[in-house]
Design a protein that fits this description.
- The complex is a heterodimer of chains A (101) and B (419).
- Chain A has a five-stranded mixed beta sheet with strand order 2-1-7-5-6, with no helix packed on it. In chain A, strands 3-4 form a two-stranded antiparallel ribbon.
- With 101 residues, chain A is mostly beta strands.
- Chain A has one helix spanning 38-48; strands at 5-12, 24-29, 58-59, 62-63, 67-71, 74-75, 91-96.
- Classes of the chains: A mainly beta (101), B alpha/beta (419).
- The complex binds zinc ion (ZN) (3 copies).
Chain lengths: 101, 419
């Protein structure tokens, strides 16, 4: 069993509008048989945090194209994207690029 | 002891309490390309068949040797910056695929904008340049980079911020607050021109009359002229706007889809020369900057910008073009630049009819018709015939100009508004 982990989530660039306008969330992911990866995190976010219009946040089992993801301040494309295994105290940021400029 | 009977390889892995581990070496960054698994010590990577190292994955823990064991702990090694090879990379550039640290990225981003400005000779020493500022990410990054490059390379430009207040309660109030903070942060003069002072109508009032369906026609047409009028009030020589590579690619697509040849030819141009009285030349210094990089630049630099949907702007058509491009980009990151290049390289066969640019008989602004779009829209609003400017009603321009009354049938057609 993997122990529960506490992580920090941040939504910005307009993505926060899908989460009642709340930008920062401190959450604890429950203990489960395998370690948490980003793919599972997206499912968890959709079930537990997302307030409206999920199609504006997720597409298939990834984020909607146009939403940037940073893991511990680095582009998730450098970190293995959906396969990245979350560690306790990780910081994951979702920024929408789809809102007005 | 049991361990004495075990094979030397296993013994080696268990000595000194070191748990077993496997190194997986990928030839490409981001755990891609050919991979090689190394379980024991290796003095020469080439002997092991490894030609280059892009990323390394360390598998450790008791289950590491069993492939597919989910208990395996994967430790992603930080990717190093491919430019300075010192600091940890912070992003993968969509344009080049390079992994850069924050500082190398800032430098590369700013230098590319500088190269764009120099190559296209966008500015001359001593010019007054108005930065179209909406408080959003693009114009905030534009203002920041223009200010920085003007100092770094001594462009000798007098910069100012130019904003349009459309009169949208909630939306514009907040974004204008952001622009006002930008003014302080960048120490640049700011001029705000409002739809109300220019046209006598706020967007809120327009929406009340025309409904949500057609309001973007008004928004776009009025904003374009408002910037020009503001620029003239400020005696600005040029306006620069925050249009980025994604915006330009989107516009190329939309013009292709609509078959709008005249716009298709113009929309990839990095600058417009003055097209007549009342029109200030415009340019797009961020034309080749990807949206992803603009957003990350703003994020890593902690720039203050405002992001929300324009409450009156469903603009579905652009939305579809946008989503389509983003989907393409996720499969092939160079798609955005590719679409721009396609637009730039399209040539129009001789003999294709182009609308002739003239000027509006009422206000003097450029127009291919007797009345410019914004005068037609205003006339419609003021007469309570909001549909006048929506769709094609060129035949009526003569009547409006000479103030002839419209027939009952004409009036009826222009009044109906579907919400
Ligand atoms: Zn670097
Ligand atoms: Zn609009
Ligand atoms: Zn006019």
């Amino acid at each position: 069993m993997a122990a529960p982990i506490a992580i920090h989530l941040e939504f910005g660039g307009g993505a926060e509008l899908l989460f009642d306008g709340v930008k920062e969330h401190h959450v604890t992911l429950p203990s489960q048989s395998e370690p948490w990866d980003v793919k599972q995190l997206l499912v968890w976010i959709q079930q537990n945090l997302l307030k409206e219009r999920p199609e504006l946040f997720v597409q298939g089992d990834s984020v909607r194209p146009g939403i940037l993801v940073l893991i511990n301040d680095a582009d998730w494309e450098l970190m293995g994207e959906l396969d990245y295994q979350l560690q306790d105290q990780d910081n994951v940021v979702f920024i929408s690029t789809l809102h007005g400029g | 002891m049991a361990t004495e009977h075990q094979k030397p390889a296993t013994q080696q892995q268990q000595q000194a309490g070191v748990s077993s581990f496997t190194l997986v070496i990928y030839e490409q960054e981001n755990f891609q390309g050919r991979c090689h698994e190394l379980t024991g010590p290796s003095n020469n990577l080439q002997e092991a068949g490894v030609e280059k190292v892009g990323s390394i994955l360390v598998l450790c823990g008791p289950g590491a040797k069993k492939p597919g064991n989910l208990q395996t702990q994967r430790l992603a090694m930080p990717v190093l910056c491919s430019s300075c090879a010192e600091k940890r990379a912070a992003l993968k550039r969509p344009k080049t695929g390079h992994s850069l640290c924050k500082d190398c990225f800032f430098w590369a981003f700013e230098e590319e904008v500088h190269q764009t400005i120099v190559a296209a000779k966008l500015f001359k020493h001593g010019e007054i340049v108005g930065i179209a500022a909406s408080g959003g990410k693009d114009s905030t990054v534009l203002a920041h980079v223009m200010k920085l490059l003007n100092e770094r390379y001594d462009y000798g430009l007098e910069l100012m911020l130019l904003s349009v207040d459309e009169g949208i309660t909630g939306y514009r109030d907040d974004s204008l607050e952001t622009v006002k903070r930008n003014q302080q942060q960048y120490e640049l003069p700011l001029k705000i021109v409002s739809y109300e002072e220019l046209y006598g109508w706020t967007m809120d009032a327009i929406v009340k009359q025309v409904g949500l369906k057609n309001n973007c026609t008004f928004c776009g047409v009025f904003r374009r002229q408002a910037l020009d009028r503001g620029a003239i009030m400020l005696k600005v020589d040029k306006i620069c706007t925050g249009h980025n590579a994604d915006d330009v690619a989107e516009t190329v697509l939309m013009n292709v889809l609509r078959g709008d040849i005249a716009r298709l030819r113009r929309c990839t141009a990095i600058s417009t020369s003055s097209e007549g009285d009342g029109v200030v030349p415009r340019c797009k210094p961020l034309k080749y900057a990807y949206e992803k990089e603009i957003v990350l630049y703003a994020y890593f630099k902690k720039l203050d910008y405002f992001s929300t949907e324009c409450i009156y702007s469903p603009n579905a058509y652009r939305g579809y073009a946008r989503t389509f491009l983003k989907d393409l980009e996720s499969v092939r990151p160079s798609s955005i630049i590719d679409v721009i290049h396609s637009g730039e390289n399209l040539s129009v066969r001789d003999g294709v009819k182009m609308p002739v640019q003239g000027t509006c008989n009422r206000c003097g602004y450029i127009s291919s018709q007797a009345l410019c779009k914004s005068c037609v829209l205003l006339e419609g609003l003021n007469r309570g015939l909001p549909k006048l400017g929506i769709g094609k009603h060129h035949r009526l321009h003569g009547k409006i100009l000479s103030q002839q009354p419209l027939t009952e049938k004409e009036e009826r057609k222009l009044k109906a508004v579907d919400f």
